[in-house]
Amino acid sequence: MKATYILIILCVLVFILEQAAPNTVYPLVTLSPINLLSSPWTVITSMFGHEDVLHILFNMIALFVFGSMLENRVGTTKFLFIYFLSGVLGSVGFMLFSSPFTSALGASGAIFGVIGALVVLEPNVTMLFYFVPMPMYMVGGIYILIELFYLGSADSIAHSAHIVGFFGGVAIAAFEGKASWPPKPPMAFWKALAIPIVLSLVVAIGFGAYYLSDQLNVKILNCTNAASYDTARTCFLDLSKDYKNSPQQQAYVCSVYDEYFTDEACTGV
Fold first, then answer.
1. Model confidence over 204-215: pLDDT tens digits?
2. 187 shares its domain with 221
3. How many CB atoms lie within 10 A of CB 56?
4. In the chain, how many domains are there?
């Protein structure tokens, strides 16, 4: 069975588990940057989780179409290497442009890496883009232009993960596709999985340690981990008042507060 199909099956199984036991499964698979030191595996597992039916449906259709094509072109081992490494790079892209208290879920970064790789390796192959035939390089160009246009918008979509994943796929395919003499031996299957996993751990430790080196982040994290809803809200409001003389830091506290609470405005007065 193709690795593409196995990935789709795993994503569907994880989604079923998410719906069956959301309070247990979502924290195990969701990438939460501020919690990376305690949950470093989520850089990888977040590629298997999805938020809702439409999220997984569109991602799995894209994975089926583009993943099958790339796997046929480069083989299973290199396909998995490109897929997972692009996914890790996509997570890096997400964290570079997002608050550490946001979260990410989905295979999109990895899938955009697959699309980017196809732009390099099969630029002229004809694809149907919303029923319009066009070459692969145009399909990839349209996708990335859409992501660049919406970068920074408040639509709860990790556009930065898509962009970095895409260009990660482009770079990996360009590097791996370069002719060399003597010819490079085929990549070992274990390396195709081990390299992204090791990189994901380096990313998790690096970003996790960086976030927790900021004492304000630690204080906010303590608020989010409060025993009850009311205690957490009070903690945030008190913290906001503590930083009333530091507008930038207070605004940061309130931006995190607004992600958790909607029934009372964050104020430092």
1. 999 999 999 999
2. no
3. 24
4. 2
